[in-house]
UniProtKB/TrEMBL annotation:
<dbReference type="InterPro" id="IPR007814">
    <property type="entry name" value="PaaA_PaaC"/>
</dbReference>
<dbReference type="GO" id="GO:0005829">
    <property type="term" value="C:cytosol"/>
</dbReference>
<feature type="region of interest" description="Disordered">
    <location>
        <begin position="1"/>
        <end position="21"/>
    </location>
</feature>
<dbReference type="Pfam" id="PF05138">
    <property type="entry name" value="PaaA_PaaC"/>
</dbReference>
<keyword id="KW-0560">Oxidoreductase</keyword>
<dbReference type="InterPro" id="IPR052703">
    <property type="entry name" value="Aromatic_CoA_ox/epox"/>
</dbReference>
<dbReference type="InterPro" id="IPR011881">
    <property type="entry name" value="PaaA"/>
</dbReference>
<dbReference type="GO" id="GO:0097266">
    <property type="term" value="F:phenylacetyl-CoA 1,2-epoxidase activity"/>
</dbReference>
<dbReference type="InterPro" id="IPR012347">
    <property type="entry name" value="Ferritin-like"/>
</dbReference>
<dbReference type="InterPro" id="IPR009078">
    <property type="entry name" value="Ferritin-like_SF"/>
</dbReference>
<dbReference type="GO" id="GO:0010124">
    <property type="term" value="P:phenylacetate catabolic process"/>
</dbReference>
<protein>
    <submittedName>
        <fullName>1,2-phenylacetyl-CoA epoxidase subunit A</fullName>
        <ecNumber>1.14.13.149</ecNumber>
    </submittedName>
</protein>
């Protein structure tokens, strides 16, 4: 293809983005657009799958049958989100095996938040309340992202995340209305998860290398800092209802901005976690690699079954 033809295709592509048209897998797209989507969407899929681990840890220890059923359903939903997202990413020409390989070798990232341990039952409440709360704020704008399969997957994901957030908040409400020990447990969980939840929304806009281009392509519809502010403004009143205090001495309502001012985020901690040195990074990857290796016989059996079926069909057709 000549340079002139590429320029003309790029122009048509930019115009489609401008008109808010969805880009579909078989449409022409710039190579960078394809690669950026593979990066973000596969990282998103990995986050959902790795995100099952901190909560999976509590399924056998949930304090009642009702809690167990709800947690089990939530973790299953996360598996489903991962699978939609892997399928949507495959439409861009990368295989699932390649994506897994990138996760297992550390080439692809997944959300920093899942590298923290879930040490008490209150962590299940806090993960639902804060982590799913932040995930919804990040993902609702993705329902109108420019790449069709990603945008459509996000609609269902967001509905389910909303249930997840409410089940987490309900656990917190119950603990906060319980004994002083239960309330302390809830406060302790909030103290540990608050800052990592703010970090989850990504580096500051000044440090974010992808935001500018991703906003132009309408992959991202809001910047990391905008989402973080929205998350804080939404969550502080919820903490007030619970009677819990946000562990930030600089948190203050700003009348002029009609938003909360907040304290300095420890970005060194964030980058350490992103680079693989968080409290649970090694365990998380080990669990995924073990699941992949341990599942080899299942994949082999499924392939053998599929090829036997195919042979049978071919014989019947003769
Ligand atoms: N952790 O230039 P930016 C969930 C990386 S799903 C690790 O700002 P971008 C559901 C970033 O990749 C949670 N790395 O990047 C659930 C880039 O590195 P790269 C996941 C991070 O893409 C709930 C570099 O830093 N959600 O929670 C993080 O424009 C409960 C520079 O950053 C999504 O994936 C981080 N937190 O903005 C499941 C949503 N932040 O790739 C279970 C879709 C940034 O060049 C239980 N993704 N980095 O090597 C997004 O919206 C965006 O990708 C951002 C980052 C906002 C995460």
């Amino acid at each position: 293809m000549s340079e002139e033809q590429v320029r003309s295709l790029e122009k048509q592509f930019d115009e489609r983005i401008e008109r808010d048209e969805k880009i579909e897998p078989k449409d022409w797209m710039p190579e960078k657009y394809r690669k950026t989507h593979i990066r973000q969407m596969s990282q998103h899929a990995h986050s959902e799958i790795v995100g099952m681990l901190p909560e999976g840890n509590w399924i056998t220890r949930a304090p009642s049958l009702r809690r167990k059923v709800a947690l089990l359903a939530k973790v299953q939903d996360e598996a489903g989100h991962g699978l939609y997202l892997y399928s949507a990413t495959e439409t861009l020409g990368i295989s699932r095996e390649e994506m897994y390989e990138q996760l297992h070798t550390g080439k692809a990232k997944y959300s920093s938040i899942f590298n923290y341990p879930t040490v008490t039952w209150a962590d299940m409440g806090t993960v639902g309340w804060l982590v799913d709360g932040a995930a919804i704020i990040n993902q609702v704008p993705l329902c109108s992202t420019s790449f069709g399969p990603y945008a459509r997957a996000m609609v269902r994901v967001c509905k389910e995340e909303s249930f997840h957030q409410r089940q987490g908040y309900e656990i917190m409400l119950k603990l906060c209305k319980g004994t002083p020990e239960q309330k302390d447990m809830a406060q302790d969980a909030l103290n540990r998860w608050w800052w990592p939840s703010l970090m989850m929304l990504g580096p500051t806009d000044a440090e974010s290398v992808h935001t500018e281009q991703s906003m132009k392509w309408k992959l991202k519809r809001k910047s990391n800092d905008e989402l973080r502010q929205q998350f804080i403004d939404q969550t502080v009143p919820q903490a007030d209802i619970l009677g819990l205090s946000i562990p930030d001495k600089d948190l203050k309502w700003n009348e002029e901005r009609q938003s909360y001012d907040f304290g300095e985020i420890n970005w060194d901690e964030f980058w350490q976690v992103v680079k693989g040195h968080g409290p649970m990074n090694k365990e998380r990857i080990k669990a995924r690699v073990n699941a992949w290796e341990g599942g080899e016989w299942v994949r082999d059996a499924a392939m053998a079954y599929a090829s036997k079926n195919q042979e049978r069909k071919e014989k019947q057709a003769v």
